[in-house]
Fold:
Amino acid sequence: MAINSALGGVLESEVTQSYNSLSGADIRATIGQYQFAELQAVSYSVTREKAPVYTMGSPDVRSFSRNKRGIAGSLIWINFDRHALLNIFWKAKGQFVANIDDVRPDFAPETQQFLNQTAIFSASIVRDSGQPVGATIDTLDTQLGAVSGFKELAAPWYSDQVLPFDITLAGTNEVGAAATMRIFGVEILNEGYGISIDDAVSEMQATFVARTVLPWQKVQSAFDLGVGGDNFTPNLVGA
Structure:
């Protein structure tokens, strides 16, 4: 046991230099440059098809043939007073290429002002083509002057419309050890939500598939907390 004067006289063990771990309270998730602060849990699994190969004359497997790999997982987040996942992409001005005649909810996600309390009762579903929502398919027959004339950029109103994104998990514990991992090319598949009298919190869930995963790896700490760490600037709050 050594006394590290740089830490304000705290007794620090040499074990902290080699054995470090991170908990959920030490890890934050980011999508791009935005923290997914409402996220409660993220999980993923990697599966691969491997088939046994047999030949005549032996009941034992000769070899295993390696085939396709898949990555899938789930996200669980707290729903406070807005859709947390879509809110991130609305803040980041994320868009996708939508049909001009898509039926959409009548809302303005880019505004920072609160809606009037009666707005939800007068809100409806709309489309940008100028045709009413109740129009039949023959009414939508219009002249097309360009190959992509029926498309336009729009903010997503369903989670599955969000374009592929990366999830970065960054963790630093109270000892100062830091580690990170990333999930690349996340595509939202399913989303679920429900509320009942028995639910004390309001949660939303989504399942996803991904392209690849960068596993956890240790990164250089911004805090030199080793025994005799002279480069560490102590927190003087309460000193």
In short: The first strand starts at residue 2 and ends at 4. Residues 226-239 have pLDDT under 50 and may be disordered. The domain at 24-47+69-94+158-221 is CATH 2.30.110 (Pnp Oxidase; Chain A).
